[in-house]
Design goal:
The chain is mainly α. The chain folds into three domains: 35 residues; 236 residues, no CATH class; 174 residues, Cytochrome Bc1 Complex, Chain D, domain 2 (Orthogonal Bundle), CATH 1.10.760. 28% of the residues lie in helices and 5% in strands. The protein has a two-stranded antiparallel sheet. A two-stranded antiparallel ribbon has the order 2-4. The chain has a two-stranded antiparallel ribbon with strand order 5-6. The longest helix is centred in the first third of the chain and has 26 residues. The N and C termini lie far apart (61 Å).
Length: 492
Amino acid sequence: MPKIDDSTMQTNSGSSSRRLPILITLAALVAISLAALMSRPAVVKGSGCPISPCPTAVDPGTRPLPAAAGTFYPALNANQNAVTTRLTQIFTEVNFVAGGPLVKTVGLGPRFNSNSCSSCHAYPAVGGSSSPTNPLFGIYQLMGATNTMPYFITTNGPTMVARFPYKSDGVTPDGGVHQMFTISNRTDAPGCTTMAQPDFTTAQATNDIIFRQTTPTYGVGLMELIPETQIIANMNANLTLKKSLGITGHPNNSDDGTITRFGWKAQHKSMITFAGEAYTVEEGVSDEAFPSENDESIPSCLPPFPVPVGTNKTKGVPDDRNDTGEAPKLPVNFSGDLERFSLFMRFLQPPTPVAPTTSTANGLVQFQNVGCNMCHQISFTTPTASIAALSNQTATLYSDLLVHDLGPGDADNVPQGAASGDQFRTAPLWGIGQRYFFMHDARTMDMVQAIEDHYSLGNGVYPNSEANAVIQNFNNLSNKNQQDLINFLRSL
């Protein structure tokens, strides 16, 4: 081992004294930087077995295709059925910056995460969540774009978006999506050459990046209609049992005070707002709900773009607009893509579960015995609705549509509305049997691990996870009952 007194700083006392003011200054800067980093809670992930006894159940894996989801309600009327083909075309269309084959397929960027709704909402059928093969590798350098792929996107990993909880000072809240790609140097964006991608590597080094994966859209038409009175009544039911389990939960709310229910933090009220924000944030297509471009800092990267005569181009903001002045697109001619997206999602019926077996029937019993259903409320009933196919239906979604504390192990430090940095909406479980990635950040493909990751002890910034007692109850089950519960979930 080298001797400490052999160091250069000790043997060269003259140069050491000259460097002292510099070192003091550097030390002060380091202290300030550390203070900024320590002033915010760290983003941590659960792993392994957080509490004894460890579970012995094994996830049998994603149920194979064919898809048990992605079809429209058979009870749609003739007029509604007549537009489903066109709705599917709109949801699966690929957007260009300008010069695309259709006037409705232009407006991509200036920043974007993908170029089509269905590239992320892909599995097990259109409208779902991440597929096991990531489509972004066929998109990020399309048409000459000079993007590099961020470190967190892998060929067999999920489609995710990145958010920075804090701005570069490490203190001021940010929380917004930072799009992975730009339209710089694309052949359909002439003149746009200098827009840079975010510095995800530095964000990772400073623990200032979190991820959210794609949520499926099956059955959202029913979720949109669930009466608030039912949500509140369920929240106020079984209070003694919930208290004993440490479960509270509360709604997130829109500006008008009504309950929001879509997104990982239940931050959206309806399919219109969900689609409108996603179109602008994920694809960069400004629309009638969000008419501004997502980055206005470089004028040469904003519409309209010069394109060859006879091709389609953006005519200015918003990129997506109503069809006034454009050729009619019979049989569906709505006021813009947002209505089309919204109807497509509303018309998708919920996933169809596998027929019960002795194992899955017992699994449902255990699901309720350990208390999973205190958050993953099994069902609600829709009221009489203007779309008859959605009227008076049982929505077996396995969610109370409330947000709950999940503790520092799941916290992403991004508050949205009444949902704090560690609070998330109870994720609906219908269709989970054919899902590959679990948790908001897609951290695991193992359903048993996902259950364990609901457990988290408080750290002084965030409280204990509301799921802790339920996870303990699950781990205390016999191997057979644990396995039956997992088999039940994979049957959904």
